[in-house]
């Protein structure tokens, strides 16, 4: 399998985690592990599928300063897994030691491609390592287990046997999940926008759950874009705070407003914020006219509402929130989630998650018209 090479691969993601798993395989695998590892208890011999605990020592000549506690599992005659602490230092030390002793480092992508049953299963396995929520990971896990491959096989079979309508029906059913599939590891970009002082930075902080952006009573506080990753109902989202949009003579503020406009144009969704006192302005109207289909209207500062000054020209579809009291925030999160993914795939659904999957389906559907 490794052409006589002994290879070592870090199987887990390089992001810090509780545990890192390194696999060594090839003719020298077991010998190398036994050279650097010794058990806490019992004989040093390894047995297939027996879990052993011990110390990995980088040096054997008694000049050892630090040993790493690891769990060792021999998985086959020439394969061994080493489970160590998940920070960078432990895994790197073990990898480097084994490489300097003659093993060849193999990239995880190569390892995955070799072990996966299909290209799609390999891609799903790679993306699974980058999934940031249980919800997105479980969709990718379904694709690792073959949901998309099976659906594509069915399409091919129907098409070959002349049942084009059936092939098309299945392709249509998969294609409808394209948007969610393409965002499983690439977050949706949701921009908080509106005139200065409407409460964009305050709402960003409230949605994130911590104080990330500077909030101030002075209009024009935020100058640059401020992007932060989070998840909303299990969907990965980058929330972006922006400078309040207005005509400004101030050079730095104008640069910020220019960036805000670009972010508004390229956003997946906009939270267009309306201050209860200032109401709906020309700036709102301009953003709404170009982007109404991706806008959620949000009337802010609801804790300040009183019957003596009811907001007049604010559309009634606006969500009412208070970044101060938290009122309406949960409903807004639900609305954002529903607007991003109105209908979510059930378990074992075939979901295309790379652009080439979507392009192939689009071509297939276009050719079948
Ligand atoms: N009572 C109340 N005040 C709020 C709320 N949200 C924001 N404010 C106040 O409104 C002012 C402006 O808030 P920011 O969050 O800085 O507004 P912004 O839209 O980011 O402003 P710029 O960055 O200048 O465009 C501050 O004095 C906040 O304390 C709220 O929900 N309730
Ligand atoms: Mg701000």
Could you characterize the architecture of this molecule?
The chain has 369 residues and is of the alpha/beta class. It has three domains: 107 residues, Probable tRNA modification gtpase trme, domain 1 (Gyrase A, domain 2, 2-Layer Sandwich), CATH 3.30.1360; 82 residues, no CATH class; 153 residues, Rossmann fold. 38% of the residues lie in helices and 20% in strands. It is built from 13 helices and 13 strands. The strands form two sheets. A seven-stranded mixed sheet has the order 3-4-5-6-2-1-7, covered by helices on one side. Strands 9-10-8-11-12-13 form a six-stranded mixed sheet, with helices on both faces. Helix 4 runs antiparallel to helix 5 and helix 7 packs antiparallel against helix 13. It is globular and about 80 Å long. The two termini are 45 Å apart. The mean pLDDT is 93. Magnesium ion (MG) binds next to helix 9.
Write the layout of secondary structure elements.
Layout: E1 7-10, E2 19-25, H1 29-36, E3 37-39, E4 51-57, E5 67-76, E6 79-85, H2 88-100, E7 104-105, H3 108-115, H4 119-128, H5 134-144, H6 147-160, H7 164-175, H8 178-182, E8 188-193, H9 200-208, E9 226-232, E10 235-241, H10 251-266, E11 269-274, H11 282-291, E12 295-299, E13 319-320, H12 329-340, H13 355-367
Parallel strand pairs: 1-7, 8-10, 8-11, 11-12, 12-13
Antiparallel strand pairs: 1-2, 2-6, 3-4, 4-5, 5-6, 9-10
Magnesium ion is lined by residues 200-201, 213, 221-222, 241.
């Amino acid at each position: 399998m490794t052409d006589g090479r002994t290879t070592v691969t870090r199987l887990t993601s390089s992001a810090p985690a509780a545990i890192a798993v390194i696999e060594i395989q090839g003719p020298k695998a077991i010998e190398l592990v036994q050279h650097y590892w010794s058990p806490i208890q019992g004989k040093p011999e390894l047995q297939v599928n027996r879990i052993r605990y011990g110390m990995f020592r980088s040096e054997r000549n008694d000049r050892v300063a630090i040993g790493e506690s690891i769990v060792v599992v021999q998985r086959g005659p020439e394969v061994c897994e080493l489970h160590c602490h998940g920070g960078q230092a432990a895994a790197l030390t073990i990898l480097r030691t084994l490489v300097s002793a003659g093993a060849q480092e193999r990239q995880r992508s190569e390892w995955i491609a070799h072990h996966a049953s299909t290209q799609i299963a390999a891609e799903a396995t790679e993306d699974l390592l980058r999934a940031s929520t249980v919800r997105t990971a479980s969709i990718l896990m379904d694709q690792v287990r073959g949901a998309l491959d099976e659906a594509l096989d069915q399409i091919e079979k129907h098409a070959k046997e002349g049942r084009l309508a059936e092939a098309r029906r299945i392709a249509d059913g998969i294609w409808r999940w394209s948007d969610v599939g393409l965002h499983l590891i690439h977050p949706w970009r949701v921009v908080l926008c509106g005139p200065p002082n409407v409460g964009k930075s305050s709402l960003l902080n409230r949605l994130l759950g911590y104080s990330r952006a500077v909030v101030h009573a002075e209009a024009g506080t935020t100058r640059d874009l401020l992007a932060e990753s989070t998840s909303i109902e299990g969907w990965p989202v980058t929330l972006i705070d922006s400078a309040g949009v207005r005509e400004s003579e101030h050079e730095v503020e104008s640069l910020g407003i220019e960036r805000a406009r670009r972010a508004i144009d390229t956003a997946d969704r906009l939270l267009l914020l309306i201050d209860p006192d200032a109401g709906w302005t020309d700036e709102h109207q301009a953003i709404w006219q170009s982007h109404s289909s991706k806008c959620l209207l949000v009337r802010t500062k609801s804790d300040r509402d009183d019957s003596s000054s009811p907001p007049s020209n604010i559309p009634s579809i606006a969500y009412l929130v208070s970044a101060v009291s938290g009122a309406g925030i949960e409903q807004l999160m639900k609305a954002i989630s529903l607007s991003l993914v109105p209908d979510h795939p059930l378990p074992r659904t075939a979901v295309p998650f790379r652009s080439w999957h979507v392009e192939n389906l689009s071509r297939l559907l276009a050719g079948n018209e």
